[in-house]
Amino acid sequence: MVIAGMPLFYMELALGQYNRVGAAGVWKICPIFKGVGFTVILISLYVGFYYNVIIAWALFYLFSSFTSELPWVHCNNSWNSDNCSSDWAVNNTHNTTLKSTPAAEYFERAVLHLQDSSGIDDLGLPRWQLTSCLAVVIVVLYFSLWKGVKTSGKVVWITATMPYVVLTVLLLRGVTLPGAIDGIKAYLSVDFLVLCGAKVWIDAATQICFSLGVGFGVLIAFSSYNKFSNNCYRDAIITSSINSLTSFFSGFVVFSFLGYMSQKHNVALDKVATDGAGLVFIIYPEAIATLPGSSVWAVIFFIMLLTLGIDSAMGGMESVITGLIDEFKCLHKHRELFTLFIVVSTFLISLFCVTNGGMYVFTLLDRFAAGTSILFGVLIEAIGIAWFYGVDRFSDDIEEMIGQRPGLYWRLCWKFVSPVFLLVMVVVSFATFQPPDYGDYVFPMWANVFGWCLAISSMTMVPLYAIYKLCILPGKFCDRLAYAITPETEHHLVDNGEVRQFTIQHWLVI
What we know:
Layout: H1 5-19, H2 34-64, H3 88-91, H4 102-111, H5 128-145, H6 149-159, H7 162-174, H8 180-188, H9 198-212, H10 218-223, H11 232-265, H12 269-272, H13 277-289, H14 294-327, H15 335-350, H16 358-368, H17 372-402, H18 408-431, E1 437-438, E2 441-442, H19 445-459, H20 461-472, H21 477-485, H22 491-495, H23 504-508
Antiparallel strand pairs: 1-2
Helix pairs in contact: 1-11, 1-17, 2-5, 2-14, 2-15, 2-17, 2-19, 2-20, 4-13, 5-14, 5-15, 6-14, 7-11, 7-14, 8-11, 9-18, 11-13, 14-15, 16-19, 17-18, 17-19, 20-21
């Protein structure tokens, strides 16, 4: 957060606000790097393919919560298997590893229908229940985005504030549960041996990008609508700080309930804790089901998930829409139709994730769409701004907007600390890659190849556009390179032989 998250958050806010365009258009300051704009737009689009499915799941759970007894409480439902058991102490013994809880079977068998699929090569048709929920999500997203920030800016007042209310309510309930203190103690304890592993740092860097919106073009898109004199430095500090505090606060909510589940079922906390969809759609619903008035708590919880999901999905879609509309001016007059085209396209691709084997597609997209590629995109973005455009020139732009120049800390992070950290993360993520899996299911080789093609398809936008730009510019190679790395507003200086990037001073200044 300190060496990469906040500096890059500030950088993207200032970049969008100064240039007044989306993720691709901002690279008029260094045309050869425009490919990274298309990289982040593609990543946002890929994430939308599966992220909307999470919101659809939450909507399905919300509808299912309007009952006197939650459907994931017992094992006597039509979808339950003979392996269903509510006794966690039994479920976690070595002799009965096939046992599963009612909440797990509800998610995997009643919602996903994984039992009807043998793997990613046996998807089946989309489930009409989840398809209907997904369609509702898409409609909500469209009418939240079709008029741009005029509508999304109003919707966000609800989607951004509601989760704080719900989190506070859940925390007040969670800390009163037996075992909650043990869960909170585990949350606040630090295992320094785990910090020595590469995976935890890669996951942390990726999570920071998701949490702050860095590298998705979201910040650039929304900040492009700011007033030119808006204090983006203040916004960066306040927003990133609130984001970190919110994550810290949410940890208390999560671990208070995990501690409760640990004590209730008499199992170790690490046997209860899980990540991804398992925490949200298995562990938490099961914990809520044990509370008095469980249906009310379930409705509250899934309303929070819906507002969180829609808020994030709006940001991702706005990044794609603004980025492409600003780049292709002909789309300006047809924003409503273009927005409809984007959300409908997203819906059609997302249908693969609501089939019987949709969870396998979801897992593949989740693993490859925005892992290494998002770190790569942010790395190239930092290099393009701090080194090629120039950290001194960028600082001048910020001073022009807010009246004060960024301090030495920010300039050092932009030029050295953040790029080095991101470069290490990208290299390590390639070197330590582990094929994805879902439970006991191992993805076939072709699925992994497809996943890497998906990841590489966004990353290749950087070299492909650079080659394209060098090919279409006039003159010898040195002239083409000079035009490609010089802001478009200064091409007349290149004609006179004045290229700042061809001087040593440009590369040494901080």
